[in-house]
Amino acid sequence: MVHGHAYEQLDSSDPAIPAHPPNYADLEANTQQAQPTHATPNPQHDDDDDDRFDINHNPNHVHFEQFEIGDDDDEQPRDGFLKRASLLTKKFATKLNNNIIYPINQMVDPMYEAYKHFHMLYEQSILKIGNPLVVKRLFYVFFITIIVFFITRYDTNDGVNGSSGGTFSSGKFYDLDKLAVSIKEYIDPKLMQENLEYFSLMPHITGSKGDLTLARFIQQYMDNNGVKIIDFNELQSNLNYPSNNNKDTYLKLSDGSFSATLFESNNQDMEFLSFNPNALNTKNEIEQYYVYGNFGSPEDFQKLKENNIELEDCILLIKYGGNTIPEANKLQLAQSFGVKAIVFISPDYNVGGNVIDDAIQRSNVGLTRSSPGDVLTPGWSSDDGYVNRLPWYKSSTTPKLPSLPISSKDGNHLIWTLKDGVKFEDGHYSGSGKSEAKIKMKITNIQRPTHQLWNVVGSIKGREQAEKGIVIGAARDSGCYGTIGSNTGTVVLLEMIKIFTSLQRQYQWSPSRSIYFVSFDATEYNLAGLAEWIENRRELLKREGYAYIDLSDAISGDDLSVKSHPFLNEVIKNCLRKVKINDDSSLYDLYKKSNKNSDEISNNMIEMKNYLPFINLVNMPSMEIKFTGKKYPRNSCYDNFNNFEKSKVDPSMEKHSQLVEFLSLLTLHLADDPIIPYNFEDLTKKLTMFTADLERHSIDIKNSLNSDKPAIDVGQLRKSIEEFGRITSPFKEWVNGWKDYITESAEIEPSIFAMNRWKWHDNMLQFNQAFLAHNMQQQRPGFMNLLMGTPFSAPENSDDRYEWNSFPSIRDNLINGDFQKAQQEILELSAIIIRAGNDFVEF
């Protein structure tokens, strides 16, 4: 009996068990044979007892003996679900306590007793030392310092961390040598070649659709590579474009026997047409006799004058270039002789063994040496649409003579008809000025006083002194396709953007100071894009910009050219040594070979390049490093990708790769060296050399004038420079002391050292500002630098005769024969040098 239930266990071997399971047919048959007996109440059971059914015996069925279910009178109801769950929980808790918690307590209790004992000893010790609250805080600071030290000391950051700023600095110093190893890995020659070809597919004259397309491409490229801060800077400036109506613009002999072809490659699309950016139109047709003036240099004009060649109202034919004054200066000089109009003769070119004599060079004739930028707003920004714009004839920057360029083929045809007058070095005659041969010409360019142009600016923010930064700029616009003239520099710029954003992603790196990548527009229009950009933020750049790298025509030959402000010579040479061109030599060796076996770096940055406004408007130390040596058709449609390949300038893009590696390494040091790498010793040495050169220049001018006036005295200037070297020597001592301390102190920089570093940086930029003229009524509003800068009459390219890019105002006065004013400015500059040196070392 179990709880009143009785049962008989069945034997599995009982023959009554069927061999097969029953089916529904059997069930139905059996049901019909065995009818149930109706249940009747059993007085011995309650109403809810089970009813009984008599089932007739059937061999196909198993006989089950019926259960007898009895109910006890005292049976209790079953427990509820919650009660059963509670019992299970208590059982689980008991097991947990017995098997886990209790054993752990047995182990922890002795440790807790030990902790209380040592805590009591600790509190007693604290009481013996002093105020418990103060002592505990000191111990806490010490403990946290130790933790931070070990974290920063051994945080490898994928192998690029160097010395750490530690506890008291705002950031860490990266190991630049380790970062530099990755630079070469990121360089992709094939991608650079593809970019160069793409940029060369379309003409991109300033303000054209092609120019805007490439500007948007660069903006998107920056964004795709992770540049976070991008400014699509739209400005307005005076622009002009050629007219394709041959009734409005033409040049021909009066007798109708010859007409100049004013387009290239038999193509009369706008970009192939002849014109000078910023040129003056003729109101009506001009018909005058013409004279050939060689290169139009001051010496050439002097020859014509000495031989009584009449220039009044003539049309003057002069050749581009000649390593003399810029083309705009030639127009101004011609105006002083009464010339009516200028025709520029383009040079011919050899491309892949083929001579090209129908190229037309489109050169700016805005007077850059007076003021770069919009020719109608000289010295101030034209960004505001309501800005005051001068009439053409009131601006000091606009040309006052009309001009038109022609090919060398057409130019030679005109020159060969001249048989008398002055014979120049090229064998051609000037003509007498009274020749019967006359020229008819008319110029009707499309003038746009306010046309859009676009600079694209991307920046990587500095982690320590974000307000200070360097600028890397490339000209984007061109006279036509611009493969060498502008595109090589743009390709280098894009590759550098890719490299530095890759360093950010791979190493979580950011520079100590900011890096700005800029694609400048309107370079061929008197540097309008850059000059207007600077004029809009001149004061900001004075306080924050400390270096500029120019990327114009970056690859045009096999020779390495390096020009730089003396401040940066040392860091440039160090980086040149690190870039290998083969197993045995570096770029440094190549530079010496290209520079007459000398490693002296020239400061003569006087060409019409984007570095001019940086140097002359804000005195930002600048540099230009490029491959040069081959003559190419600049600002002509023959400067295209096809001719680039034919000339084999850089077929494997090896020079592009080497230049990118060097400039990236240089940028890394300029932006991330803990101390801005200005070298004041090099500046002192160079200023001493410039002073000797100035004295020699003054003597040469005095001798050429056959004057009895005494040469200028540079003694005071020389003494000031010597004193300047002595005054600024503590800076080098501090730098050496800082490096020694960081090395010996587990690479931790105390906050006072960091503050001193930042103060030196502030003083460096204040030093640069000290040499900017404060007189806004300067004769040349775009040239404010008294120490470094370009004299008005300096040659277009450096001729190595003098250190042209130094003491510009003094040299201008010497060239003009005003020795007294030159002497006065020497004394004033001497005082400025001493004052600037003292201010630099003052804390």
UniProtKB/TrEMBL annotation:
Molecular function via GO: carboxypeptidase activity
Domain Peptidase M28: 455-649
InterPro entries with a match to the protein in the record: PA_dom_sf, Peptidase_M28, Peptidase_M28B, TFR-like_dimer_dom, TFR-like_dimer_dom_sf
Pfam families reported in the protein's UniProt record: Peptidase_M28, TFR_dimer
Residues covered by region (Disordered): 1-57
Compositional bias per record (Polar residues), positions renumbered to this chain: 29-43
Positions of the Transferrin receptor-like dimerisation domain: 712-840
Alphabetized Gene3D superfamilies for the sequence: 3.50.30.30, Transferrin receptor-like, dimerisation domain, Zn peptidases
Family: Belongs to the peptidase M28 family. M28B subfamily.
Protein name stated in the entry: Zn-dependent exopeptidase
Naturally occurring in which organism (per UniProt): Suhomyces tanzawaensis NRRL Y-17324
